[in-house]
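Morning, I've got a small favour to ask if you have a moment. I've dropped the whole record in just underneath, so have a look.
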Amino acid sequence: MSGQPDVPLQRLLGGDHLASLRRRLRQRFERAPLETIDHIRIDELGVEEHAALAGLLGRAPRHSKSLRIDVHAVDAALQHAGIASSLRDALEKLDGPIIHLAGTRLRTQTLWTGVIEGCGDSRLASLLRTPTGIGLIKRLARQDPEAAAQLCHRAEEVLRRLPADGITRSQLAADVLGDAHALDNGRGTAALVLAVWRQGTSPIADEGSERLTEPKDDPDA
């Protein structure tokens, strides 16, 4: 929020005595199946809470424990009074942005779908379509789709060179990724390449008898 809400808005819905009501109204917007809401029903209302909602609706403040709110009517009333552009806008002016949870989940899911579809290596894409594979890349990228896409690109560069008989892992890492340690045990690219390789063959051996192992936490990022 920038600055303090207008005095009329504070009088209408502000104050600690209406904090619980505002929180419940915000939750309705956050959890709605769609980002637009037609009606909201609020139960277990206190006297002051009911009076505040009745005021928004232009009704006499006869107390009852529940009230059904016509959101579009409230939006229009707030606009007409010059207080806020909508009920949601009023709540955001008082307590900050409201995040629509379903919309956020959908946008996040779309980003991760883009990571999978952006894979040029069919073996890597196949891995990421499994619960284990997508869980691995999310952990390695610390839940960041952009970092995941970069990690996939690095893994694909390595996979194009495999099998690489007669070359050590450090040489392969230096040639492909420009860092001799990029495929060391515990690095994200190594873990992703290993997971792909395990789908069709045995784990990749390092110099001597070492084998690549998956990192407990991130990676290359």
User: Anything to note?
Assistant: Strands lie at 39-42, 67-70. Residues 101-117 form the longest helix (17 residues). Residues 11 and 48 are 12 Å apart (CA to CA). Residues 7-99 form one domain.
